[in-house]
Amino acid sequence: MSLPPQDHEFLPPYRLLLGPGPSMVHPRVLHALSQPLVGHLDPLFLDLMNDIQALLRATFQTNNEFTIALSGTGSAGMEAVIANLIEPGDRALVGVNGVFGTRLATMIERQGGVPLRIDASWGDIIPAEAVREQLARSAPVKAVVLVHAETSTGARQPLEDVGALCRAHGALLIVDAVTSLGGIPVEVDAWGIDACYSGTQKCLSCPPGLAPLTMSPRAMEAIRQRQTPCHSWYLDLALIADYWNDRSRAYHHTAPISMLYALREALRLVQAEGREARFARHRLNSEALLAGLETLGLTPLPATEHRLPMLNCVTLPDRINDAAVRTRLLEDYGIEIGGGLGPLRGRVWRIGLMGESSREAHVLTLLGALEEIFAHHGWPAQPGRAVHAAVDIYTGSQPTTRRST
């Protein structure tokens, strides 16, 4: 068995990451990754863990004591929440309007639970009235599970009224905020969310590898009252809680030390920018991008009131060759955007403007590249029109949110 040559360093090319994740990373975060290692039980590292918990509470808008960064990607956060809160026989309502609602239903089944699906078309939301009706006729229900930002469709799920519905029926509210945290409001306490998880590689603009996670006292009590042990030792939150607890610090596993350095720095950048300024920046850049794409014949999939500003899902005219354009963007321009998943494969593009990727220069660069590619293929595109449409948004020629720099 032969091995490839090992006498050279791996030097990846620069990519402009405008797909559904990962996003661009600030130089300060990359610098934090390069700092010397200390032990995962070193007092200095334990102090850093405290810092991260405080920063995450501010980002999640919660006072939950159990607020941590789980060792693993956003999918680990998803599985940890389901594995710890759903026992065999538990019934859970799950909104299914894309890839990640479908995945949650599968995880519930694998834990021996009973997923009661509330289905909606891809690109649509799960209406609160549908949740109300299903809760009323399906009691008892252990949890309601919803995806706040469905990454496969660009749809933003309203949550403001769901927490009260859950409490009225004795159910927990579980929310997937993998793509939304740090890009749009996520109000864990105000919305009555009991378990909420995210990922570092989206709007937090940190490399993938950690899953921010927060659990309400109700959720932690449900874990303590389990009739069966959690099926996963590594993701057992009762054990992990002891490692993150400042009063006990019981060894559970070796934490990804460098990734936690990076997350602390990424969260510091989030807080320095300010919540409202950060949300306004994402809205503005999305508005400018969509204005430019409209001149090229691309239209958003979700309804206006339910569009995500950090994940712009646009439908393609039949004349556009999805794979050819994305391949040329990557190979000739060094720009990554995402294609569709499942039934949307070949029919949509998913363009991420998340965290550090959400910049005016990136929007204009992408639109300029698309104009050149469209012109090369003879598809309708007036030179400069897409870029000018975006510039009109930035310069205030169109009604818009005030620019955030």
TrEMBL record:
Keywords: Aminotransferase, Pyridoxal phosphate, Transferase. Its cofactor is pyridoxal 5'-phosphate. The keyword Transit peptide does not apply. Its EC number is 2.6.1.112. InterPro entries: Aminotrans_V_dom, PyrdxlP-dep_Trfase, PyrdxlP-dep_Trfase_major, PyrdxlP-dep_Trfase_small, SP_NH2Trfase/AEP_transaminase. One of its GO terms (molecular function) is transaminase activity. Pfam families: Aminotran_5. It is an enzyme of class 2 (transferase). Residues 39-340 form the Aminotransferase class V domain. It comes from the Bacteria. The keyword Repeat does not apply. Coiled coil: none annotated. Belongs to the class-V pyridoxal-phosphate-dependent aminotransferase family. PANTHER family: ALANINE--GLYOXYLATE AMINOTRANSFERASE, AMINOTRANSFERASE CLASS V. This is (S)-ureidoglycine--glyoxylate transaminase. It comes from Nitrospira defluvii. The gene is pucG.
